Amino acid sequence: MSETNKFVNQIIHGDCVEILKQIPDGTVDMCFADPPFNLKKKYGNWKDEKNTEEYIEWCERWLDEMVRVLKPSGTLFVHNIPKWLPYYAVHLNKKGMIFRHWIAWEAMSVPLGKTLLPSHYGILYYTKSRKGFKFYDLRRPHERCRKCGEFAKDYGGKKYMRHPFGTLLGDVWTDIHRIRHAKRRDNHPCQLPEPLLERLILMSTDEGDIVLDPFIGAGTTALSAKRLKRNFIGIDNDRKYVEITLRKLKEIKPFSNNGYVYSCNGNSHNKNNNPWKNHTVRDDELKEKAKNEKPEKQKKLIEIL
Ligand SMILES: C[S@@+](CC[C@H](N)C(=O)[O-])C[C@H]1O[C@@H](n2cnc3c(N)ncnc32)[C@H](O)[C@@H]1O
Q1: If we measure between CA atoms, which residue out of 13, 4, 6 comes closest to residue 234?
Q2: In terms of CB atoms within 10 Å, which of 1, 4, 40, 130 comes out highest?
């Protein structure tokens, strides 16, 4: 473990395969990878234009390293366009990893000639073991009308049955949007939104766990991990992105509310609270909070939870 400690809470400049090789076996709780998609994007140092064989062969190298560094209780997430994920899945299945889900993250893209309109990215979700892996039920606020704040669905006339803190999360995610505004993004061509990473981290780790991202880019995974009091290891082979990430890391504080992580005290029923800005909450934490409520509220909450 001490060998791993020197990488913990560091953003390392270098090639991910080379750096990963230096991290001891079985010491990381969660790995998330968002590699270049081989779509001729312009990254600083990376030629994002390999033939399929070359690209997959390269992907298998870092996938193997991620599997190796994961603890037996660990979780692996890989984000990519649907074109590449079946190759990853076949490889991970052969390595004995346990398939959990293909999460479809709805995000519109541009039509590419004679194709359906691509409207989701995939996140493969694997665990290293069949049992004993970490998984926490998550909830997200009920959908509401953006204009009037009222609930979007009438729940078959049984509104009173609605869970006070939202619906359990499924494997199709439509409520997290790509970063569209230039002022909210850094100088990186494919920065992911923090709520996406916060959700994956809350689902699969505890405070103090180690989250590793070999393609840290503008730092999304490290920032989310720090905010949620997890440790992180980030790698990128472009110094510019390492610097962006380090600068932002200095500014954020653990658990500072950025309006993304859903707060149970934020009162999900109050339409003036802009509840759709909040995304995710952990069921077990809610139950714990409910225990500390005043007796009348507590009784009501526990009945429903
Ligand atoms: C799709 S982007 C990741 C974006 C990131 N998820 C974010 O939210 O900002 C891929 C990143 O991988 C980096 N990269 C490409 N090849 C790499 C390699 N061999 N080792 C480490 N990083 C690499 C690129 O510089 C780029 O920042």
Answers
A1: 13
A2: 4
Q: Does ligand 1 come within 6 angstroms of the Cβ of 234?
A: no
What is the average per-residue pLDDT within 272-297?
62
| pLDDT above 70 coverage of the chain, percent | 79
Q: What is the pLDDT of residue 44?
A: 58
Q: What is the CATH number of domain 2-158+167-255?
A: 3.40.50.150
Q: How far is the CA of 157 from the centre of ligand 1 (A)?
A: 48
pLDDT digits (tens, 9 = 90+) for 132-175: 999 998 887 777 776 776 777 777 777 667 776 678 889 999 88
Nearest to 189 by CA among 45, 92, 295, 3: 45
34 lines ligand 1 (CB under 6 A): yes
Cβ of 62 closer than 6 Å to ligand 1, yes or no, is no
What distance in Å separates the CA atoms of residue 92 and residue 76, rounded to the nearest whole number?
10
Choice from 46, 184, 199, 223 to test ligand 1 binding pocket (greatest atom count within 8 A of CB): 46
**Residue with the nearest Cα to atom 15 of ligand 1?**
46
